[in-house]
């Protein structure tokens, strides 16, 4: 039996874009950012290393420019392929990444 948790289909994430998903758990769950990087998908906790705020400017809406995800709170920029902060108040830090797999077009937690 496959116990992987499906998060969404790859095509639900716009090319070079991002969506937010909530992962339920018995302890309340957590929120992820799913970012499309070419045919791959990267996942990060939706919590900025600067002040712990969500990165979306409206629920599930993210600012992405030139391969950089921009935190809506104070403008820190993160490389979409790695989550590393390349500018702003937490330069040198990184978003916490989460491993996801793409199986038959489904983005899944292992
Ligand atoms: S909380 Fe993201 S830049 Fe401040």
The small-molecule ligands in this entry are: FE2/S2 (inorganic) cluster
What is the average per-residue confidence, as pLDDT, rounded to a whole number? 95
**Helix count from the secondary structure assignment:** 0
Beta content comes to 35-45%
The coarse overall form would be globular
Q: Can you characterise this structure?
A:
The structure is a single chain. The chain is mostly beta strands. Helix content is 0%, strand content 42%. It contains no helices and 11 strands. The protein has strands at residues 5-9, 18-23, 30-37, 40-45, 63-65, 68-70, 77-79, 85-87, 97-98, 101-103, 106-109. The radius of gyration is 13 Å and the shape is globular.
Strand and helix map with partners:
Blueprint: E1 5-9, E2 18-23, E3 30-37, E4 40-45, E5 63-65, E6 68-70, E7 77-79, E8 85-87, E9 97-98, E10 101-103, E11 106-109
Antiparallel strand pairs: 1-11, 2-3, 3-4, 4-9, 5-6, 6-7, 7-8, 10-11
Concise summary:
By secondary structure, the chain is mainly beta.
Characteristic key phrases:
single chain; mainly beta; 4-stranded antiparallel β-sheet; 42% strand; globular; binds FE2/S2 (inorganic) cluster
């Amino acid at each position: 039996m496959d116990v992987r948790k499906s998060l969404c289909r790859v095509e639900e994430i716009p090319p070079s874009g991002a969506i937010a998903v909530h992962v339920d758990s018995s302890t309340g769950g957590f929120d992820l950012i799913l970012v499309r990087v070419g045919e791959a998908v990267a996942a990060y906790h939706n919590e900025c290393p600067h002040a712990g705020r969500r990165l979306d400017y409206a629920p599930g809406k993210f600012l992405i420019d030139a391969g950089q995800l921009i935190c809506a709170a104070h403008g820190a920029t993160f490389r979409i392929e790695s989550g590393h902060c390349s500018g702003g108040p937490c330069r040198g830090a990184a978003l916490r990444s989460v491993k996801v797999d793409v199986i038959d077009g489904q983005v899944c937690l292992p």
